[in-house]
Write a structure and sequence with these properties.
alpha/beta; Rossmann fold; pyruvate-formate lyase- activating enzyme; seven-stranded mixed beta sheet; seven-stranded parallel beta sheet; binds cobalamin; binds iron/sulfur cluster
Length: 467
């Protein structure tokens, strides 16, 4: 993307409605802010999730639940308007919301209130769940997929609304119709993007201090059966080691960050790029810790694990999912349990914290498979720092099990919500899967894998409909 300025500049406010865990800034918005500023637009970031001191999910808040949000707003008259006044004060030509399931009810309420009380302005929804916002009639347009190209084009073409419908990744609401511009354009070279810009984010107010998100790549090379990654990002692209390293240095020197959280499908999808980065970080010698989701792969052996640890990698969350080769194959995971065992031990041996996520109730999983998972975990207990709360297998929109349910033994008519699905033989339903999760949680507790925290976030799957 060339940094040349557009002839016309706009005031663009990028807003994040309440609903997230408040650990760190949202990377996608920082990327968009940088891309727009690079084109000369004036960008304000309004992270209302942080700015408004609302109760957290630990305190029982359920911001993804529309009834909860409606009740909260009824009980706190004037609150919604105070947030909208904050947004209106930025005098936006374009108001874009980063739209996620987690903050859907609040985002919709804000869009409606802005439209009814502070119009006319152009309201836009973008983000990983933007297509589930199509029913929000108070938005003018929706950006699905990678946002930089689409948003720059929108700013360039406005006020010609009809022209926007031809932009890849943009769906336009025009005269009551929804016009879709097709799939988003994904930039082939991620290093052509300016570094994400965190100015304007209330950095001091996030829970994790001196912590910033970073991305090593976009997309994924694999296509695990339960995962919707391939519908969020179409192509896998990695950044080059020099570019990632430059961002580490910038984050440490400009923002004082000493902890970076890698927000991508898996930081090590391109191990060569990661190794190149490690070499640079080791030579740099500055103490910046980093962590992220990782892929279990054969070249993550002792040598590589040692290098990662020396380069500051302090923790890896592996999408392990199951200790049963039968289930791993059904899931189309690109590894088996023996490989997982080697990787877990190599990383723990190098001093990296190892966290494993588990999925229970994948179609085809039987009692013996669950026992195999438990045996794996028992065998490797001393190498595992933590086990995530086991996730009940959900059918995420755009995942292979969603696209071809019958191939996986799922009754297609039952896929009405993420967790509502049932197998053709009736053996797996939400109720039987929940039972499996509960039993596993009890086992996990007895086996000494740490206290079971009820993670209400997982309930959002029950909350959003797939239709
Ligand atoms: C970090 C993260 C989170 C954090 C986000 C908060 C934070 N402070 O960072 C938290 C912990 C809240 C979270 C929660 C969950 N997550 Co999450 N998360 C991610 C992760 C790992 C990285 C997101 C990221 O920063 N990406 C990098 C940036 C550059 O991309 P981006 O955020 O998508 O932004 C781009 C576009 O979306 C768009 N865009 C974004 N905002 C806007 C706004 C406007 C106006 C416009 C025009 C465009 C636009 O432009 C950006 C730049 O191109 C992704 C995986 C991934 N690689 O994306 C999963 C991912 C987004 N999460 C996912 C899931 C399933 C969840 C959970 C449901 C998990 C759970 N069971 O609890 C919850 C609920 C999320 C929800 N949908 O509401 C899925 C989403 C699948 C889908 N939508 O179909 C993903 C893709 C992972 C996966 N493999 O399945 N998550
Ligand atoms: S589960 Fe992980 S490795 Fe598998 S497709 Fe999704 S992001 Fe890629």
């Amino acid at each position: 993307m060339s940094p040349s300025l557009t002839a016309k500049t706009m005031n663009i406010t990028l807003a994040i409605a309440p609903g997230f865990v408040r650990k760190k800034p949202l990377l996608g918005v920082a990327y968009l802010a940088a891309a727009l500023r690079g084109r000369g637009h004036a960008v304000e970031v309004a992270d209302l999730n942080i700015e408004s001191a609302l109760p957290d999910e630990d305190e029982g808040a359920r911001w993804w639940d529309k009834d909860y949000v409606d009740n909260y707003l009824d009980a706190n008259p004037g609150f919604l308007d105070s947030l909208c006044r904050r947004l209106a004060a930025t005098k936006p030509d374009v108001l874009g919301f980063s739209a996620w399931h987690l903050n859907q009810p609040f985002t919709m309420a804000l869009a409606r209130h802005m439209r009814e009380n502070y119009g006319p302005l152009f309201i836009l929804m973008g983000g990983p769940d933007a297509d589930s916002f199509f029913m929000c009639r108070h938005a003018d347009a929706y950006v699905t997929g990678e946002g930089e190209h689409a948003l720059i084009k929108i700013a360039e073409l406005l006020p010609d609304k009809a022209a926007l419908a031809a932009i890849p990744g943009v769906s336009m609401r025009l005269d009551g119709r929804l016009l879709k511009g097709g799939e988003a354009l994904e930039l082939p070279d991620l290093d052509a993007l300016p570094l994400p810009d965190f100015s304007g984010f209330p950095l001091e107010s996030y829970k994790h201090k001196k912590t910033l998100p970073i991305s090593f790549n976009r997309g994924c090379r694999n296509c695990c059966a339960f995962c919707c990654m391939s519908s969020v990002w179409k192509k896998f692209r990695t950044r080059r080691p020099d570019a990632i390293y430059a961002e580490f240095v910038r984050d440490a020197e400009v923002y004082g960050a000493d902890n970076l959280q890698v927000d991508c499908a898996a930081f090590n999808l391109d191990m060569q790029a990661v190794e190149g980065l490690c070499d640079r970080l080791i030579a740099w010698g500055r103490e910046v810790r980093w962590s992220g989701m990782g892929l279990i792969r054969p070249d993550l052996e002792e040598r590589m694990a040692d290098k990662l640890a020396k380069a500051g990698c302090s923790r890896i969350d592996f999408g392990f999912e199951s200790g049963s080769d039968h289930v791993l194959a059904l899931m189309r995971k690109p590894f088996n349990a023996a490989m997982a065992e080697k990787v877990v031990r190599a990383c723990a041996g190098a001093g990296i914290e190892v966290v494993l996520s588990i999925i229970l109730g994948f179609p085809g999983e039987n009692d013996e498979d669950v026992e195999n998972t438990k045996r794996f975990l028992e065998r490797n207990k001393r190498y595992i720092t933590d086990l995530g709360v086991p996730n009940e297998c959900g059918v995420g929109g755009g995942s292979p099990i969603d696209r071809e349910p019958l191939r996986f033994g799922i009754r297609p008519e039952s896929v009405t919500s993420c967790l509502g699905w049932e197998t053709v033989d009736g053996s797996l339903t939400h109720v039987t899967r929940q039972k499996r999760v509960e039993e596993f949680c009890q086992w996990r507790l007895n086996a000494g894998f740490g206290e079971q925290k009820e993670k209400s976030i997982k309930l959002i799957g029950e909350n959003y409909s797939r239709e």
